[in-house]
């Protein structure tokens, strides 16, 4: 697996963010039975930058906690069976890894939401990473039924890593 993590905020998270993100990405891939080595890019930024990206890509002029940019159009969530038919498009030409996509997380939102929800920054960062990984694997939460599926999967990934609401 190739995991590129870039820290682009002047605001420091006082935790081992690379280790947390790595564990969640790996567990999410395992949990969804991804049969391939994968490449994921994660950027940790601030509210100003994520607001610009949110405005540009979603036409929402406000900061958000996490943005997901999946590279794959799944017929159904986490259905990896048809991807080899589009190997030139979905796989890195040099490494052969599945190009899942990009995750952008606001460090400020990690801190704010951890305080707001009464849990650790570690838990909030892990939650946002798990949430975004599910988006990269085709899940969504626009309908209640989809939202419930995503919430359960997020809970199971964090539980498997023993990351609770401390």
From TrEMBL:
<keyword id="KW-0963">Cytoplasm</keyword>
<dbReference type="GO" id="GO:0004521">
    <property type="term" value="F:RNA endonuclease activity"/>
</dbReference>
<dbReference type="GO" id="GO:0004222">
    <property type="term" value="F:metalloendopeptidase activity"/>
</dbReference>
<keyword id="KW-0479">Metal-binding</keyword>
<feature type="binding site">
    <location>
        <position position="131"/>
    </location>
    <ligand>
        <name>Zn(2+)</name>
    </ligand>
</feature>
<keyword id="KW-0862">Zinc</keyword>
<keyword id="KW-0698">rRNA processing</keyword>
<comment type="function">
    <text>Single strand-specific metallo-endoribonuclease involved in late-stage 70S ribosome quality control and in maturation of the 3' terminus of the 16S rRNA.</text>
</comment>
<comment type="similarity">
    <text>Belongs to the endoribonuclease YbeY family.</text>
</comment>
<feature type="binding site">
    <location>
        <position position="135"/>
    </location>
    <ligand>
        <name>Zn(2+)</name>
    </ligand>
</feature>
<keyword id="KW-0540">Nuclease</keyword>
<keyword id="KW-0255">Endonuclease</keyword>
<protein>
    <recommendedName>
        <fullName>Endoribonuclease YbeY</fullName>
        <ecNumber>3.1.-.-</ecNumber>
    </recommendedName>
</protein>
<dbReference type="InterPro" id="IPR023091">
    <property type="entry name" value="MetalPrtase_cat_dom_sf_prd"/>
</dbReference>
<dbReference type="Pfam" id="PF02130">
    <property type="entry name" value="YbeY"/>
</dbReference>
<keyword id="KW-0378">Hydrolase</keyword>
<dbReference type="InterPro" id="IPR002036">
    <property type="entry name" value="YbeY"/>
</dbReference>
<feature type="binding site">
    <location>
        <position position="141"/>
    </location>
    <ligand>
        <name>Zn(2+)</name>
    </ligand>
</feature>
<keyword id="KW-0690">Ribosome biogenesis</keyword>
<dbReference type="GO" id="GO:0006364">
    <property type="term" value="P:rRNA processing"/>
</dbReference>
<dbReference type="GO" id="GO:0008270">
    <property type="term" value="F:zinc ion binding"/>
</dbReference>
<dbReference type="InterPro" id="IPR020549">
    <property type="entry name" value="YbeY_CS"/>
</dbReference>
<dbReference type="GO" id="GO:0005737">
    <property type="term" value="C:cytoplasm"/>
</dbReference>
